[in-house]
Amino acid sequence: MGAPRYLEIKNRLLEEIEKQPPNSPILSERELAIQYGASRMTVRRAVDELVVEGFLYRNGNKGTFVAARNTIKKNTATGSILAEEPESTMIYFNIKKIPEIAPFLDILEDEAILRIVRVNHIGERLLSVEEIYYVRSLISDDDINDLKHLLDLNGFVKQGTITQRFVPMLLPAHYATQLELAPGTPIIMVESLIRSRSGVPVIYVKTYNNPYENAIEITY
Amino acid sequence: MGAPRYLEIKNRLLEEIEKQPPNSPILSERELAIQYGASRMTVRRAVDELVVEGFLYRNGNKGTFVAARNTIKKNTATGSILAEEPESTMIYFNIKKIPEIAPFLDILEDEAILRIVRVNHIGERLLSVEEIYYVRSLISDDDINDLKHLLDLNGFVKQGTITQRFVPMLLPAHYATQLELAPGTPIIMVESLIRSRSGVPVIYVKTYNNPYENAIEITY
DNA sequence: TAGTGGTCTAGACCACGGG
DNA sequence: CCGTGGTCTAGACCACTAA
Fold first, then answer.
1. Which nucleotide in the DNA or RNA is closest to residue B37, CA to C1'?
2. B54 touches chain A (CB under 8 A)
3. What nucleotide is nearest A3 when CA is compared to C1'?
4. Which domains are present in chain A?
5. For A14 and D8, how far is CA from C1' in angstroms?
């Protein structure tokens, strides 16, 4: 049951890091190993992950240091897909053939697709309108009756990969009312294709982002 | 001199992977360790990286498998910054105070900034126009006389972090001619801020992307 | 010279899944 | 049951850097 040792150490380190000012050195890996009663390799794994995530940085053979907060790696491009905060309101859903979408999901044009349209918002702030397309045959009947479960795209992404295309366009009139914006406002529409681990397309999403409420920002 | 053992193994595995069809299993970590005459931990490190990069995927306790090519992790958002292919043609450069840009670089409004404007292209295909801003005081005089060296942003990024904001807008008239597009075309302008490892802003870039030649696509 | 991160070894135990 | 990946140990040697 217990979490792995390196994750426990990682979390404890994270607490320490938050108390320290940027560019201050942390203990050496050997010292940390003694402090936490673990081997150096285990401690190193925890530190490695914190470096990859941007909380720490290493400087040659001089040591490991606390990074500035603005170097922590973030990604709002996945928007409502991976973020936990926004609420969603479903506008409608249906099941039918959608020939234009079928190629993205790698299915025949006459196969059924489940389409859900929703608005993502945080309180009064309207972030985006989202069209979500599922291959009907990959969805169980139980899931159809419990759409809430389906709408948590997070779980799907964790299991596979996500490819996103950023498309500049003018906001279509029918979504302008949903987002309370002028039709023709320049926006970024994000096409997301979620694949299983083995590369099979599972979900296709089009997100129409409100540029005033939902800035897309990525730190690598 | 020699590359680390795990990198050598990684590259050899990569060659094997390319010959195998998707979803075929690779040898177990223990078998690979014997085959390459290395410890299991060393082999595992090679496999780990290939999994992170999307070339392989693991399936519970069943084994490790070759991933479909479309799950390989890519990123064209960094565009000309990280890609090697495009050629660049400098349009002009100057050194002066630019009060609007100074805040991004975390300097005073009356500090000098080096500004370079260039067009990125592959042959006849016009990909983007790029405005690059450097803090003058961080650049040596030698570099000013050898701008080519400065224009290789790749090296800067490797040393630190990059934060990108994606901004939808209409193509400004003065760049429309450069990209041979109609002014007012909806485009994505990417603001990139490159920081050193310790979090100090070093370079600020605005990239005006030609949507017809330069699709922005990311696979995580 | 002493300490750092980077790499590597040769074992070990665990939980889990398929015969 | 046995084989898989996931984790962990207690050492080791190296290149590099700062004192």
1. C9
2. yes
3. D7
4. 5-71 (1.10.10.10), 79-209 (3.40.1410.10)
5. 21
Number of helices followed by number of strands (H, E) in chain A:
8, 9
Q: What percent of chain B has pLDDT over 70?
A: 94
Least confident span in A8-12, B11-15, B117-121, B158-162: B158-162
Say how many residues make up chain B. Answer: 220
Residues 6+ apart with CB under 8 A from B104: B133, B191, B193, B201, B204
Q: What is the tens place of the pLDDT at every residue in B122-132?
A: 888 999 999 99
Q: Do residues A142 and A90 lie in contact, with contact meaning Cβ atoms separated by under 8 Å?
A: no
pLDDT at B141 (0 to 100): 72
**What is the CA B164 to C1' C15 distance in angstroms?**
41
What pLDDT sits at residue A137? 82
Inter-chain Cβ pairs, chain A and chain B, closer than 8 A: 122
- Express each pLDDT in B38-82 by its tens digit: 999 999 999 999 999 999 999 989 999 999 999 999 888 776 666
Of A50, A77, A89, which is closest to residue A157 (Cα–Cα)?
A: A77
HEC string of B145-195 equals: HCHHHHHCHHHHHHHCEEEEEEEEEECCHHHHHHHCCCCCCEEEEEEEEEE
Residue B116 tokens read as 């370079």
DSSP class of B99: T
Check residue B83 and give its pLDDT: 62
- Which residues in chain A have their CB less than 8 angstroms from residue B162's CB? 219-220
